[in-house]
Design a protein that fits this description.
Elements: E1 29-31, E2 40-45, E3 48-59, E4 65-71, E5 80-86, E6 91-95
Antiparallel strand pairs: 1-3, 2-3, 2-6, 3-4, 4-5
Length: 121
Amino acid sequence: MSEEQGVGEQIPEPEPARPWRPEDGPRPEVWTWPNRDRPALEVWSAGAWRHAPVMARQNWPDGTVRYQVEVDLRGDTMVTINTYQWPQPGLRKGYDSGSKPSRAVDERRQGNMPQARPRGA
């Protein structure tokens, strides 16, 4: 048991949320941050808190909030993308972003695409 848990305390691993479906009603409002300055959560998995940069926050019309994160759930460097409904005992705030989130599609907020080499180089 981790020292962070406390004596006798059990933290359940968070349950991933299912994706939005048309029968859920209106689409959720989605917010993103610049790729270089994303907030992060910590996800309890395999007996440890795992760092999880936030890819997007989804505000659902029913009032629930879901976070899409990149996370290495087993500590073996295999990163997966999961969405979790907030709050859950197995999730906690990691850190904030210094940037304001946006709903606009902005390529500057995404990672840079590799540049093709000039032909003949």
